[in-house]
């Protein structure tokens, strides 16, 4: 098949677990791969309520290749980080699946933005700014119907030095 090959590093048992899983977790090293190295793409399946790494360097074309195992690869729920390439691929490849993002990666994303805006010192040293940033991070834990109202509340009481962070949202 030339360059159209799908390279997957996994055992048959791991692939069966992945194909049978309704909930999968995906992650990649797209922005952290060193020069000269390709990014690694990982898939985790849910087993006994835990995410278990089952495949490495998997290509999204794997969905079509699942037929070799006599399976349809149709997870009902996909969780990922906030990498735009992954989010776009999930929507395209699994349009019927519910897609959610990881709390760890959400807070990490906000923290990186705080640092890139030059707010790191204030975040570390000014208790009110630290608290307001943590409240922003906590929005993802609230019922959806309350998020907008709480976002506005936090913005109203926040320091003007956080304006660029609020614009990021």
TrEMBL record:
Superkingdom is: Eukaryota
Protein name in UniProt = MULE transposase domain-containing protein
Native organism is Rotaria socialis
